[in-house]
Amino acid sequence: MDLFTVIFYVFAVITLGSASIVVFSRNIVHSAFALLFAFFGVAGIYVLLMADFLAVTQLMIYVGGILVLLFFGVMLTQRQIDVDIRTGSIQVIPALVIVSALAGTLVGMFWSTAWKPTSLTPIEPTAAKIGELLLTNYLLPFEVASVVLLVALIGAAMIARREKKA
């Protein structure tokens, strides 16, 4: 086994272990911290796949934005740290049936696929090509998405600042 395979398995174990803690933890703070490690593990796998733009985007958007917002929401909510986040309506049997069916389908597809080794191509950075496409061919959808996100941000701020009428 070469070094990259070992590093991949380390990142995979970190990601899957952290994701399972997110799902099965009864403490919301522990879940939030485990989510941080899951995001870092996914970013590490992107780096191993030579997807530099996706790795940086993963870190900036998910770790830098969404997770920090989640931490602030958890920490600033008074007396809500020890909330039991599980509900009484967990349907374990249907979930196990669906997960088993999906896992069986994926394993069946994995084993029935004829994997062909390919020659390695030279590795090129992806950020420059994506930036060029965003500023040439996809400029209008990029700007429309930015305006939609700005409107959503203003709407969320207005909803958050609206005083409750008793």
Name the helicity range.
Answer: over 70%
Broad shape? extended
Q: Measure the end-to-end span.
A: 66 Å
Strand content: under 5%
Q: Major sheet: size, sense and barrel closure?
A: none
User: What are the segments in which pLDDT stays under 50 over at least 5 consecutive residues?
Assistant: none
Order of helices and strands: HHHHHH
Count helical runs.
6
Counted beta strands: 0
For the CA atoms, what is the radius of gyration? 21 Å
Which structural class is indicated by helix and strand composition?
mainly alpha
| Average pLDDT number | 84
Describe what you observe in this structure.
This protein has 166 residues and is mostly helical. Helix content is 72%, strand content 0%. It is built from six helices and no strands. The protein has helices spanning 3-24, 28-48, 52-76, 92-112, 127-134, 139-161. Helix 1 (3-24) packs antiparallel against helix 2 (28-48) and helix 2 (28-48) runs antiparallel to helix 3 (52-76). The longest helix has 25 residues, at 52-76. The radius of gyration is 21 Å and the shape is extended. It starts with a helix and ends in a 5-residue tail after the last helix.
